[in-house]
Amino acid sequence: MKKIIYMVIGMVGTISLYSCQKEFLEKPETTGNTTIETVFASSVEATKALANAYRTSLCQGLFDNGGTNIGNGTLSGISGECMPGETWADIYSAYSLAGLTSERSTDNFATNYVAIRRSLLIIDNIDKVPDMDATTKGYIKAEMTGLIAYRYLGMFIRYGGVPIVDKTFISSDDLAVPRASLQATLDHIIKLADAAYAGLPDSWPEKSVGRLTKGVALAIKSRALQYAARPLFNSATPYLSMGANNNIICFGAVSAQRWTDAVTANEAMISWGKGHSTDIINTGGGTNTANPNALDDYGTATSTPNNREVLLAYKVDNTANNVKMFKFYIPVRGSNGRGGTDINNERYLTDNAGMITNFLRIYYKADGTDQDWPKVGDGPRPYTDYNSRMQQMEARFKADNYAHGIDAWNNPGNSVWSYDNINSGVNTAGSGKGVAQSTKFYYKAGTRSWFEWPLFRMSEFYLNLAEAYNELGNSAKALENLNVVHNRAGLPSITENDQSRLRLLIQREWSIEFYKENRRYFDVKHWKRADIAAGVIGGQYEEFRFNFLPGKTNPAITSDIVSYFNANTLAPFWNPRMYLEPIPLSEINKRILVQNPGY
Hints:
By secondary structure, the chain is mainly α. Helix content is 37%, strand content 5%. The protein is globular, with a radius of gyration of 24 Å.
């Protein structure tokens, strides 16, 4: 299926929030003879700028975001899901060994304002386009408003209160914009989301699928209110003191109303979705019924472009320019140029880091019970035990991973995805290959090497409701929404009524459902998980090791693998300052912004 691709064309921004260059403040940095006048001289050129705004806004926190964001790995490598992909890479050294530093964040702070300025420039100038009708111009203004809201949402989650910029600056403006309070930042996001909702369509023609809709505006609002209600922000005291600036990272009081607001927003989101053919995919199960088509339904929801569960995705399939977006996920070698080396002469197959045992234990067996995995210090178990237990796992595990010695479950019957083609080795004395390796985003992908990163999936809003209702003491509604997701996964209904135990079950569901979708790293911090330093973001990681027949070392030959055991591996760093991310020192040194505590 053809995709709408967000191209890198048009207005290029600055790298600093507070640039003093007069020429930049008056017009966008240009390429050749490109100016504001030429960009908005025709609908063709303005559409290029629109595509560029999408491209630079929706890449927040992904590989090609630029500057000092996460590279050479994924957030999975620092969130307790898997090992870092490469031990020499910044994800390993900057996080796993020393924690966040004053110049390191997961989205490159300054690029947020580059993206916001691009969208503001379009809002300011789109009316100049002579061959574009008023309806289209109105839609574009609403789209840009929604993209700005999306960027502020990401910053709200990462940093707390941030500077609010609501216009394009000129040289005579005061550029010293301080950080806003947490409440003001949240209010700004909601204001932007509501304005976008008012101006956006419910749907687009097929050629424009991938652009923002009213549903995306509702999704932004729902996620913002959910994070506002969680314990990190919804607290009387901050995680660390900022003194007079505590309101930048904490609301200063616990309020149940924030959970009520989250319920209202998420109910509205699901109601809109049901009215516009957008909902969780479940083709085989009714209410409180385990779905027999779980592997196909979940796999479709996470992997198939333009499926009806995904509200918004990051649509880039240019593997030459975005190689790191894909190289840390694609495990296949051989066909369609996906194996061997990439444009940087780096091996794809060495970088698909293995799941750690800590996270494996979160998954259910297909019957809804817990699997018995070996503990550190247990003696080796025969490989047949590993194989048998892996075959018993739930559908989401099989859609998102392949196990050592077993053909990938996510592309059944496809020789490209046989173990011979996908294995990158099992570890003996080394580490990194883990208990299994990821096939996420490639369900029934065949020879497709790219995927569309899902930014909003409908299952999120059911789990939001489960979480919010549980915090409000309504276990019946919490279970109703939790089981929509749990049953779709082919699992029998959860019936737990105790609030504390149900909270952990809901968080467990979040972790499984959104494995490798860059959610866990933020969720566990905003939940203020008690075990965050005990094998989640920090603490001891564990992974499986394997023994081979004497003289045999080829992991592609399953019969050579004799046994497996569980062992300690990396022990990442954790410090409470890491609940939120640091503002880069280069910005702090301008003496305008205050730093988050502990950095």
